[in-house]
Amino acid sequence: MNAERPRQLSTAEERRETVLRTAIGTFAARGYFGTTTTEVAKAAGISQAYVYRLFPNKEALFTAVVEHCFVRVRAALEGGAAEAASSAPEAVLDSMGDAYARLITDNDLMLVQLHAQAAAVSEPAIREAVRAGYARTVEYVRGASGGSERQVQEFFATGMLCHLLVSIDVGTIDAPWTRTLTAGIAHY
Q1: Distance (Å, rounded) from C-alpha 42 to C-alpha 3?
Q2: In terms of C-beta distances under 8 Å and separation of at least 24 residues, what long-range contacts does 42-46 make, across chains too?
Q3: Could you give the angle at the alpha carbon of 89 between the alpha carbons of 88 and 90, nearest 5°?
Q4: Is the pLDDT of residue 8 over 90?
Q5: How far apart are CA 179 and CA 173, in angstroms?
Q6: Among residues of the chain, what percentage have pLDDT more than 70?
């Protein structure tokens, strides 16, 4: 006799995580202003009403996506720090930078970061989510690397340059200006 297993429904927290993972791709494609909650719901395979049960509005959903992206960045940086060849600040920062460069080959994550920075200009809640995410990340990088203020600043400046290089696809252009911007920067 083959007894049927009762169907196990996912919890609201599991659905929330699914919506966040799906929303990254949706927001990456069109940004905060160009994406509707209907599009996110459709991509997640749920109703728009259920999206609103999980998140009170689009702004709350987007800020949760931004926070989710910062969690992924932190995890990559932690992995990079753990793989560093030595505990010297330069070695730890180089290893974390390499881990971050690998992470942003996921264009969706990088695009959400870029869209979040753009939306932060005019949307206070998004600005606060981006600020909080950077604050936590900077403090983690400072503590994990033991780097100086200047080293940590250069680490983040290089990360921003990586965003630019990836977003304009400089790997497809061989010109003096692209060689200048990409010198010494790893691309995956």
Answers
A1: 34
A2: 44/18, 44/19, 46/15, 46/19
A3: 90
A4: no
A5: 9
A6: 94
Q: What is the DSSP letter of 121?
A: T
Whole-angstrom CA distances from 156 to 149, 163, 181 are 11, 11, 15
Question: Is the Cβ–Cβ distance between 152 and 138 less than 8 Å?
Answer: yes
CA angle (98 as vertex; 140, 88 as ends), nearest 5: 60
Quote the pLDDT of residue 3: 53
The dihedral built from the CA positions of residue 153, 159, 160 and 162, taken in this order, carries a sign that is positive
**Residue for token pair 């010109």:** 175
CA 118 to chain centre: 14
**pLDDT > 90 fraction of the chain, expressed in percent and rounded:** 79
Q: Is 78 exposed, middle or buried (0-12, 13-18, 19+ CB in 10 A)?
A: middle
**CA 161, 166, 172, 173: dihedral to nearest 10 degrees?**
-20
Dihedral angle computed from the Cα positions of residues 118, 55, 29 and 125, in that order, rounded to the nearest 10 degrees:
0
pLDDT in tens, 105-157: 888 999 999 999 999 999 999 999 999 999 999 999 999 999 999 999 999 99
